[in-house]
TrEMBL record:
A Pfam family reported for this protein in Swiss-Prot or TrEMBL: Methyltransf_7
Species this chain originates from: Sesamum indicum (Oriental sesame)
One Gene Ontology biological process: methylation
Keyword Transferase attached: yes
GO molecular function: metal ion binding; methyltransferase activity
UniProt similarity note: Belongs to the methyltransferase superfamily. Type-7 methyltransferase family.
Keywords, in A-Z order: Magnesium, Metal-binding, Methyltransferase, Transferase
Annotated protein name in UniProt: Probable S-adenosylmethionine-dependent methyltransferase At5g37970
Highest rank taxon of the organism: Eukaryota
Length: 356
């Protein structure tokens, strides 16, 4: 399922390009952190003056937020070179940025929107970031933001009626039985390890990787009764089933291929992988929940993220009704939009590829 969907493309009013300020807000917070880490941690001593410098953004979507991140990263790296000795520095050094996302991503909009004045050459890199995509030891700096909560697939057990983890009547692991949560957690650990292993092959020794990982401030368990977006969507779907707008069987066979980790879990996965040194790991309050405050904007953000996924499974007939109902629900209960109701956080992680 995850392989079959992407953010809503184009540049229209329902597009991800027009509805990603929630994800964009984190860049204001993380910009000085990235600049500091590149200044202090990036090793350029092994590069000759004419070596090109390769950067990749894994999970770039349609580009506007990615372009800002790439500007921050390339500018910090250029400053690093300029402050180095004349032996290392070279005005002719070329930068290459590879924009990665699923093959269904709207790369046309991305490349139409590329900043005309940019210090790098750009290339598309379609494919799942859970697999290797670039030549061995070719990448100097890897980056991913708001992407690593997506799983490579829905855990098989949660859609199997014969499994103890069958997630009947629910679409996520929040508030579900322990078996459901464990199935999601296991799939997440497997997928993050695959991501880390693929990047370990692509990164040069000593190369850096900066990750902005959507997460939760608490570990979800069967006792959780929260107000997450996915909880509301599940509730609306069940109401629609009662009205005959969608079958319960369709809902029972649908689960979101997303998982929100918590800091201790992510750190343990990285340490088990063993390919990296954790240079910095910091929990940031999610600034997106302060940036998107109206019911309309909130519903539009999540429609841009989930519309393609929902359409693939349920068809396009119910999508307008689903997200309009969600908007009306938020307007009727404005306290649901209060930042303190949102338990999401961002985990900033800077990893350095261990020397081989």
């Amino acid at each position: 399922m995850a392989q079959l969907h992407a953010m809503t493309g184009g540049e229209g009013p329902l597009s991800y390009a027009q509805n990603s300020s929630y994800q964009r807000a984190v860049m204001d917070v993380v910009k000085p952190i990235i600049e500091e880490e590149i200044t202090t941690k990036l090793d350029i001593s092994q590069l000759s003056p004419n070596d090109s410098f390769w950067i990749a953004d894994f999970g770039c979507s349609t580009g506007l937020n990615s372009f800002l991140a790439m500007h921050i990263i390339t500018e910090a790296i250029q400053n690093k070179f300029q402050s180095a000795s004349s032996i290392i520095n070279s005005q002719s050094r070329e930068f290459y940025v590879f924009f990665n996302d699923h093959v269904k991503n709207d790369f046309n909009t991305l490349f139409r929107s590329l900043p005309p004045e940019r210090p790098y050459q750009a290339a598309g890199l379609p494919g799942s970031f859970h697999k290797r995509l670039l030549p061995k030891a070719s990448l100097h700096f890897a980056y991913s933001s708001w992407a690593l909560h997506w799983l490579s697939q829905v855990p098989k057990a949660v859609t199997d009626p014969t499994s103890p983890a069958w997630n009947k009547g629910n679409v996520y692991c929040g508030g579900a039985r322990q078996e459901v949560y464990d199935a999601y957690s296991s799939q997440y650990a497997e997928d993050i390890d695959s991501f880390l292993e693929a990047r370990a092959q692509e990164l040069v020794s000593g190369g850096l990787m900066a990750l902005l990982v959507p997460a939760l401030s608490i570990k979800l368990d069967p006792s959780y009764k929260g107000e997450m977006v996915l909880d509301h969507i599940a509730s609306i779907l069940m109401d629609m089933a009662e009205k005959g707008r969608v079958s319960e069987e369709k809902i029972d066979s649908f689960n979101f291929p997303t998982y929100y980790t918590f800091p201790e879990e992510l750190k343990a996965i990285i340490e088990r992988n063993g390919s990296y040194n954790i240079e910095r790991m910091e929990v940031l309050d999610n600034p997106g929940k302060y940036a998107v405050t109206s019911a309309h904007a909130h519903a539009s953000v999540y429609r841009a993220v989930f519309e393609d996924l929902m359409t693939n499974h349920f068809g396009c007939e119910i999508v307008d009704e689903l997200f309009e109902t969600y908007r009306l629900k938020l307007e009727a209960s404005p306290d649901l939009l209060l930042p303190e109701k949102d338990i999401s956080i961002i985990i900033f992680v800077l990893l350095k590829r261990k020397l081989e």
